[in-house]
Design goal:
about 140 residues; 3 helices
Length: about 140
């Protein structure tokens, strides 16, 4: 079965030399762990869309409980985050919090948009980082209660 969703890559782990697991935050399915074959090759058409903190439209093959990346079309990439170590560490912290608080295969309405806005503000650096962190933690605490 093919599943097409918008999502943000919030985790990436290597499998061998050319493939990896990606954790994708979606509204419809929460956090999806998918296998992405060949995305670490220089010629991979999905390399940019599967980079950490990339926002894209993903098409997955679902067999049983496993997802495999079929294709990905980039929507936005938060490249500016990687130029600031504090912003990058905050983005990694936010991703870990979301992975720990989101259930797989359960709807997470609004979390994708919230994470996209948070990453956008980290990327553009218009708001102080400590304020972004406080708002994020307050929002996550509100959802959890």
């Amino acid at each position: 079965m093919l599943v097409t969703v918008d999502g943000i890559v919030i985790g990436r782990r290597a499998i061998g030399e050319t493939s990896c697991f990606i954790d994708v935050l979606t509204d419809e399915y929460g956090v999806i762990e998918a296998t992405a074959h060949g995305v670490k090759k220089l010629t991979s058409k999905n390399a940019g869309s599967t980079a950490l903190f990339s926002y894209a439209k993903f098409c997955f093959n679902k067999t049983g409980v496993r997802y495999t990346l079929n294709s990905a079309e980039p929507i936005y990439s938060f490249h500016g985050i990687s130029s600031d170590i504090e912003a990058l560490s905050l983005a990694a912290y936010f991703a870990e919090v979301i992975k720990d608080t989101s259930a797989s295969e359960q709807e997470a309405k609004g979390m994708l948009r919230f994470m996209a806005v948070t990453l956008y503000e980290l990327d553009k650096k218009r708001i102080p980082l400590d304020l972004i962190k406080s708002v994020f933690e307050l929002h996550i605490a509100r959802i959890g209660s």
